[in-house]
Amino acid sequence: MDRVTTFLIRRIFQAIVVLFFVTLITMLLIHLVPGGPVAALVGVRATREQIAYYNQLYGFNRPIWIQYWKWVSNFARGDFGFSVKLNESVSSEIAQYLPKTLVLVGLGLAVSLVFGIPLGIYQAVKRYTIGDYALTWVSFLGYATPTFFVGLMLIEWFSLDLHLFPSEAPQGTTVGQVLSQPRALILPVFCYAFVAYALWSRYMRSSTMDNLVQDYVRTARAKGASERRVLWGHVFRNSLITIVTLIGLSIPSLVAGAVFVEVVFNYPGMGLAFYDAAESVDLASLMGFTVIATVATIAGNLLADVAYAVLDPRVRYS
To answer: How many CB atoms lie within 10 A of CB 288?
Structure first.
């Protein structure tokens, strides 16, 4: 068995351990709701007899480890529970909302990387110039401004004042219907990308500046390599290592950013569904969405580790 296979097996085992603790903590938090999960389900006016009946009906009167095992077993089969509030399975909710959230996150991430990486390199090459200071100011603005506030300002300026774009995101039940309204996608995608851009540009600037003073750069220049070749043939690839690692580690914050964007622009994705489930105390939906977000985070970190090895041949897993 080679080192890469051993590394992957070890990382998958670690992912299973993390998933176990997250699901267990999620289950325990549900039982910490005042009055218990049934009281949250049927309301504060429910009688003791009603609470006892629903506890027996949904199995909440059983030991916690039995409840956990049943939930995890159903989860492994793709059954995330049933939303009494919406009268549909959580699996159907995820199948409906998750693809649209992936569209928003994918487009926003792509736009932020397309602008953040080259502008970060530009700032490193032209450091301490007016252009560097101006872009640094923009990055700090993206760092300091909450996502929901950026969204509200975009709606105020470009929708209510200038009437250039709709104030509401595309409304549709499928990805095709969402993509068929590109003008309505511009503001939510830009809002998501602006905050993420600040992160990528700052780290790309710092990583590029660190690589520009390395010995291999001086060696390449001494051999007669052009500045373009040094920058894009050597420095660029090594600087990307930081970004790749950062993307994997930033998946939780990227998902959280999508929640705020979807709520502000009424985008029909998992973020808005999660917010609605929290408001209505839809425990089954909250548990299902939490597990999906956890799996996405674990998968993102695993892919980041693999990409790290591809970009940096010096890395050896042992």
So the answer is: 28
DSSP class of residue 315 equals -
> What letter represents residue 92's amino acid?
S
Give me the tens of pLDDT residue by residue for the chain, a chain 318 residues long: 566 677 778 878 888 888 888 888 888 887 777 767 777 777 667 777 777 887 777 777 788 888 888 888 888 888 888 887 787 888 888 888 989 998 998 899 999 999 999 999 999 998 889 999 999 999 888 888 888 899 999 999 999 999 999 999 998 888 889 999 999 999 999 999 998 898 899 889 999 999 888 888 888 888 888 888 888 888 888 888 778 777 776 777 777 778 889 999 999 998 899 898 888 878 888 888 888 888 888 887 777 777 766 666 555 544
Domain ranges, residue 52: 3-78
Q: What is the dihedral of CA 217, 219, 220, 224, to 10 degrees?
A: 130
Contacts of 128 (CB under 8 A, 6+ apart): none
Longest dimension (CA), the chain: 85
293 in any annotated domain: no
Q: Are residues 191 and 55 in the same domain?
A: no
